[in-house]
Specification:
- The protein has one domain: Transcription Regulator spoIIAA, CATH 3.30.750.
- Strand 4, helix 4 and strand 5 form a beta-alpha-beta unit.
- The protein starts with 8 loop residues before the first helix and ends in a 7-residue tail after the last helix.
- The chain is of the alpha/beta class.
- The protein is elongated and about 60 Å long.
- Strands 1-2-3-4-5 form a five-stranded mixed β-sheet, with helices on both faces.
């Protein structure tokens, strides 16, 4: 948000024109696995969480829960403003009980801390992967807990 005086109309229009267009966050539902993959490109905005909540809510209403959520981001860009941060908190609060597992496919240090931090606030199982390990993260997020427990690799996952 930025405030301009009445005499600064041209400056205000120029500033608005310089803002990035399109979604800062895009997402896609993988219907075969019940996983939503979230691609983060810019600072998180409130409307991006609204769109994500719409997709997640539609899936949850039909299927009862979301198998996984995969966040794919090179570096965490932060939030566009405080309202965006609050919308993020609301999204987590309203959905964390309906998501079985969350994977971070990212190269940031924050993503490597995510499992420990998230465990304090949410019920989902959380795991970090490298940014280039998106396919592995999706496979992990899509795999039901019973299959992981029976797998010999589950001890290291």
């Amino acid at each position: 948000m930025r405030v301009f005086g009445n005499q600064e109309l041209d400056k205000a229009i120029g500033w608005l024109s310089s803002l990035p267009e399109g979604a800062a966050v895009s997402h896609r539902v993988l219907p075969d696995s019940g996983v939503i993959v979230v691609e983060v490109k810019q600072a998180l905005r409130a409307q991006d969480f609204d769109a994500l909540a719409f997709s997640a809510d539609n899936w949850i209403e039909t299927h009862g829960y979301l198998q996984g959520l995969v966040i794919h981001v090179r570096e965490f860009p932060g939030w566009e403003n405080f309202g965006s941060f609050l919308r993020h908190v609301r999204f987590v609060r309203n959905h964390h009980r309906e998501v079985k597992r969350i994977a971070f496919a990212a190269d940031s240090k924050l993503a490597s801390l995510a499992p420990e931090i998230a465990g304090l606030f949410i019920q989902a199982e959380v795991k970090s992967f490298g940014y280039d390990e998106l396919d592995i993260a999706i496979t992990w997020a899509a795999r039901p807990a019973a299959q992981r427990a029976a797998s010999p690799q589950s001890a290291s996952n």
